[in-house]
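Hi W.,

Here's what went into the run:
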Amino acid sequence: MMYDYFSSIVTGITAKLEQDPQGIHARKRYALAVATLGRRLYSGDARIAWCGVTAPFDLLNSMGVTSCFVEFVGAMLASTETAELFMQGAEDAGYAADSCAYHRAVTGAMLKSAMPVPDFIIGTSSPCTAGLAVMENMAKQYNRDLFVVNVPQSESPDAVRFLARQIEEMAGFVGDHTGQALSRNRLGEALELTNEATVLIKEIYGLAKQKPSPVDSRFLNNFGVVITLFMGTREGVDICRGFRDELRHRVATNAMDASQERIRLMWVQNRIQFPFPLESMLAEYGAKIVVDELNDVTWEPMDPDNPFESIARRILSIPFSRNADARVTHLQTLAREYQIDGAINPCHWGCRQGTGLRGIISNGLKEIGVPVLNLEIDCVDSRNLAEGQIHTRFEAFTEMIQG
Amino acid sequence: MKDKILGFTCAYAPVPIIEAAGFQAFRVLPQGECPDQAGQLLHDNLCPHVKRVLDRALDNDLPEVSAMVFVNSCDSMRRVADAWQVARPKDQVMVLDLPSTNTPSSIDFLATEYDRMARTLFTWNNQAFSREKVRARIKVWNDLSHTLGRLETKMGEAFYPGLAAAVQIVVNTAATDSVDAALAMAKAAVAKAWAPARGHAPVFLFGNLLFDPKVFDLFENWNMHVTRLDFCTGSRFVSTVDLSLADDPFVALARSYMTGPPCARTMDITRPGNLAQEIVERAGASNARAVMGFTLKFCDPYLARIPGIRQALQDAGIPFLMLEGDCTMGDIGQQQTRIEAFTEMLGV
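Here's what came out:
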């Protein structure tokens, strides 16, 4: 079923792109890459690993492993409005209905054999312990070997050493399962590609900061998280170049509509994954999202001569790996750089690590004069969605900002 | 002069280090009647443990705690560590990074974390850093662990009314008052001539937090013979540290804590899902005929493993009752009918 679904997307987007081969079409090319990855995961002939969100995908790509974080599947099921079936399946099997719906959807898909069986599994303790529990359950269910990357919360020398050591051990684990040991040359090349993509990503975010911003609310939706899957590959560089070029084009052709951003917003953590008229709702009030918390480069360039420590430092720099102080400081920096007027925190139901910071994030942004709208919403499970209520809250929030 | 009080919230906090640095260790348990305010800083969908702990901090419902050690053991613990610093900015706070796995590299790292913690606490209390002091306190805790172990063995051998509550009182005393007092109580309990009784169903209890001794008296009133208290606030809190494992007490602590009976958040990656099998084995070893789980609402590490535990118990033919709540007496009281039906079904 899923293979056919991804294949049809690949076919459809490819046909559209062929109609305008000279066009930039950044989002379409990005969607094509994502669908192609999905098709590969479900093809049955790739060597695949299910992973945690902060796994080093460039290293895995350099070792020829098709890898993906499991929350990607949860989001994809939500976007295709099929998550409910799987979440219900997980709940029927005894998994708590008030747990994270990304994980419930994935668990349900696993129980209903709608997930490809991986060759091995790589869990990460960041961003959440709930995700790690899913990885352990998956290893048990599929009877596959599990490796866990423990991500400390501090950036102390001991923490860096510990994480770097684990990443090196992980490479050994992967090599044991693929029969091909890590090639330092290939890893070096992959990290160079990561660096190339990162330069482009920084340029993308730099363009997005302009006022008016050339991005619309949807343009960089999920970008920062999903692009990690393509790190260390030429395809990843090409995707980033497409986004950069499209933004450059919009700026060059003055395609930004200032009337559509009377209110510049920041989105905290994950977007709503099921079909939801967020952009049009915001547009009604002249508001748009110009920055997402997870769309940022927080790390230094990768050092191919010191790959494990470089990767470790990158993982440790990701805001949701860190404590509240670091995360709030990061949000404040983004708020200033993007000159935002307000922030929306979706408080994804069931996400302890994310929603647990609700009050601290609100206070931190309030300190610098940025109001926060805390939405009580499940970003994956639409069953309890109160769309009218959200509409009303957007209206009140934007009125308050403009008032 | 009284020792300064240092608070902690998780069973993975190494209390011997806290005491060696000259602090009185005080476990901030989620109890009391303070108003429900934690949701302002956290969120209402976090577990009642961390919310109640933060409520106590916000309401100043604590002894004279001047410092805290938090353990990065789960998402909720991470968040309460963050929130505590907002609620009580004058407290000295340290967060210990706890790996999720018991691999050699994890144990090495945890040992460095315990070393860091010890140096920090000795400095906070203007004491000279001393591994010997840490070793000495570990020996006292080991003494308590061995003595409690004898009581726990007795719990499994026969039904002694009041013994489960007595064990919990010892653990609570060690957690919130004094390990020396707890040891004296434990030794007195060992020496006491407990009168066995019949007609109660032997049940192994596991979960995260259940610490009110009156709860276990209630269970007995509902025909249950509690054979073991496998909780973060029970036997898992007072575990033996094998000092022969390493010359360095921090390495010994790390190895013992990471290879002992685990909380659901700690895993053995060579045996995914092994918590379920361990519960089956520990229940059998305690002579239980059934298992009852109790977890706090919104506790992801446990709730995600319950279906696997249920399956393993079913495969082993062991009846299982799962309760979820907020660990207050009122909440437990509402479970009376279910628990009575469960023990009645066991047909002792």
